[in-house]
């Protein structure tokens, strides 16, 4: 047995027993909120439960570190789609304590890549082509500063609605306690 087989076997039962019915909703978030948070496994359900959201209340976008590091990357595009097409009126950027991105070094991840078969020549080719691989793979030293940075990237994006509140929070992955970093209703003073 492998993981894919287990997933597909379970899915047959999920569908035949109509377990999906409890998750029925539409594509628009009931609370009109989009959340950008980390892909950390501890946060899969914790983020929404700690905020009293249920299935259908919010749109969720996840990546490593809850980071918006490129103004025209897929994360920013997803947030813009949530606002302009899916009726989100507020944005929550939620980082977390004990984030793996806070200890990530480009040297370590490049070393792991090489151990798994990525050739040094490939990495060098990317560098010579202008890709800043080392910077792209580097983590952050402060989750609070990282959240502030992402809030600023979203809030001041040239295509974002100017008066949309963009909030920044940090969650404790053990308890679910939220620390307010940026109050989107008072953004100018916070950034």
TrEMBL record:
The EC code for this enzyme is 4.2.1.1
Provide a Gene Ontology MF annotation, just one. Answer: zinc ion binding
This protein's record includes keyword Metal-binding:
yes
* EC primary class: lyase
Q: State which residue ranges cross the membrane.
A: none
Keyword annotations for this protein, in alphabetical order, are:
Metal-binding, Zinc
Instruction: Name the coenzymes or cofactors required.
Output: Zn(2+)
> Source organism's superkingdom?
Bacteria
Membership in a protein family: Belongs to the beta-class carbonic anhydrase family.
Task: Give the protein name, as stated in the record.
Answer: carbonic anhydrase
**Source species:** Pseudobacillus wudalianchiensis
Q: What is the lineage of its organism?
A: Bacteria, Bacillati, Bacillota, Bacilli, Bacillales
